[in-house]
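Design job #97: recover the sequence.
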């Protein structure tokens, strides 16, 4: 769990740098402090709880394990519980759910406005149906009328990684805007 101890050493709490417990003894001068390498953060067992404590200057520190809190501050150290790594991210679905595809296809048949088609394009895309997403945005472009709709078409093309089509949609939006002014 060395990564956790190192991670704790770089936290900032209430504007104060949080780090490992200060070394006992006199505070070195700034010149001597710069020349002294930082002490290594000791390895801690993964089941030791973390503690929050303040030193004599009011600086907040986080330490893993009560043994890493200097003796004079142990009485006021607040246990925070065991800090562990977050659970691993869920893997992406290998195959899209065919039931989702059927529902999206049904919604695509019922879509009438440019925004209907563009919303469906994004839904197809997030579910892994890239070809259907491209078809939905093309159909949205086919019924787009206003400059706002064309800008939305361009943004959707960008989302789908189709920069040339997005540029053409922006050009069309510009043409409509200049005519309506």
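Job complete. Output follows.
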């Amino acid at each position: 769990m060395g990564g956790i101890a190192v991670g704790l050493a770089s936290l900032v709490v209430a504007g104060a740098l949080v780090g490992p417990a200060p070394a006992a003894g006199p505070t070195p001068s700034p010149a001597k402090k710069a020349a002294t390498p930082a002490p290594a953060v000791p390895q801690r067992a993964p089941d030791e709880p973390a503690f929050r404590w303040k030193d004599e200057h009011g600086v907040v520190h986080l330490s893993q394990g009560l043994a890493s809190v200097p003796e004079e501050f142990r009485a006021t150290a607040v246990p925070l519980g065991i800090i562990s790594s977050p659970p691993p991210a869920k893997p992406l679905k290998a195959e899209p759910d065919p039931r989702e595809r059927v529902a999206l296809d049904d919604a695509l048949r019922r879509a009438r406005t440019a925004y209907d088609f563009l919303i469906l394009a994004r839904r197809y895309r997030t579910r892994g149906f890239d070809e259907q997403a491209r078809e939905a945005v093309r159909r949205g472009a086919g019924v787009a009328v206003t400059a706002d709709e064309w800008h939305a078409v361009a943004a959707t093309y960008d989302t789908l990684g189709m920069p040339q089509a997005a540029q053409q949609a922006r050009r069309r939006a510009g043409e409509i805007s200049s005519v309506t002014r």
